[in-house]
Amino acid sequence: MSTATQDEPAFLRALSGETLATPPIWMMRQAGRYLPEYRDIRAKAGSFLSLCYNPEWAAEVTLQPIRRFGFDAAILFSDILVVPQALGQKLWFVEGEGPRLEPVADHKRLGEIATQADPDLLAPVIETVRRVKASLPRETAFIGFCGAPWTVATYMVAGRGTPDQGPAKALFESDPALFQQIIDRIVEASIGYLCAQIEAGVDAVQIFDSWAGSLGPEDFERWCVHPTRRIVEGVRARHPLARIIGFPRGAGRLVPGYVRATGVDAVGLDSDMDRSFAREEIQSLVPIQGNLDPLVLRAGGRELERDVAAVRAAFGDGPFVFNLGHGILPDTPISHVERLLAAVRA
Ligand code: CP3
Questions:
Q1: Choice among 155, 185, 270, 293 that is catalytic
Q2: Domain for residue 100, yes or no?
Q3: How many angstroms separate the alpha carbon of residue 48 from the centre of ligand 1?
Q4: Count of alpha carbons within 13 Å of 48, Cβ hemisphere only?
């Protein structure tokens, strides 16, 4: 897509294929626990989900990293698991541990899950989008998101995060038709959810496939690539110019095939990605985003300076958005984020 003009935010120009002398930068999980102002609002909200569903507070924490650091893009504050919740699955977060859901792993439990997301449950998130849009500086782009069907399904089936996605894999091996139905519901709900975010004001959307790397080529094709392509097509059927970033974390050498088959406009790269492979085989297809190691950002110092330079040397001659390879770690010092921004913008 080449609809970007000089007046557009740098992030959108990069997504449209422009090579910029200074790459735009934002960070996954940039609104989060490493910021004292986030921890304040998080404490007021009481729980993570109460924060996600409170438009005033969710808009505020979305804007905090923009005010503090002037990132080139804001990302909506929410979670990928609001989609299963809108499909009627019980969801809660255990402090210090992570998400819990009532597992859906048989036909009876699937029968209790809705075929369509409840728009009332997602309405507060869409209201957050409207509020953020109204207060963002013109030069700051706004990113919406959803989880990819495979990654969301791993949580729906296991009822929690799992180191190897074993329960979801066991289900698609033993009952692929049931697993396909779970995927289909996530696909449909995600199309509607992303379209609603676009209609309320986001400039681009990202599809997070955090567990894409745990599948072999055939399963990756079936459970990651194909459902993601359906989301891309479904969103574009309503919004032909929608800008969509895929993030198949850990997919390595399967990423070029993913890009070609899904039709995403850009792709996020994790920190394990081989940089010369990415430059030659991926950046030649679409703009890329990533891949600084969050551990290096947390460590800071000379290694950080060195790695920022290495990422820029690898990707700076083509369309590129600076980002981490995964979310910022909660114990990352704020001074390291400041150093990162200074180094990228120097
Ligand atoms: O990037 C952003 O700043 C936007 C907001 C955002 C969150 N989660 C906020 C969040 C986004 C885009 C996500 C995506 C998400 N959520 C993913 C995909 C990306 C990834 O990280 O791999 C996944 C797998 C989830 C599910 C999820 N949410 C888990 C497993 C956890 C627990 C782990 C943790 O970091 O605590 C969450 C909680 C969560 N989501 C927090 C935040 C800021 C921390 C909750 C808190 O403040 O208590």
A1: 155
A2: yes
A3: 10
A4: 19
- Active-site residue 29, yes or no? yes
81: number of CA atoms within 13 Å, CB side?
A: 22
User: What is the structure's pLDDT at 6?
Assistant: 75
- Residue 38 one-letter amino acid: Y
Active-site annotation holder among 13, 42, 185, 243: 42
7 confidence band (pLDDT: 50, 70, 90): confident
- Per-residue confidence (pLDDT) for residue 296, from 0 to 100: 98
Q: Place 346 in a pLDDT band, splitting at 50, 70 and 90.
A: confident
Active-site residue, 155 included:
yes
Considering the domain boundaries, does residue 5 fall inside one? no
Active-site annotation holds for 79: yes
Is position 249 annotated as part of the catalytic site? no
Domain ranges, residue 309 = 10-344
Within a domain: 111: yes
pLDDT in tens, 123-141: 999 999 999 999 999 999 9
CA-atom Rg of the chain in angstroms: 19
Cα 124 to Cα 22: distance, rounded to the nearest angstrom: 35
Q: Whose CA is nearest to atom 39 of ligand 1?
A: 79
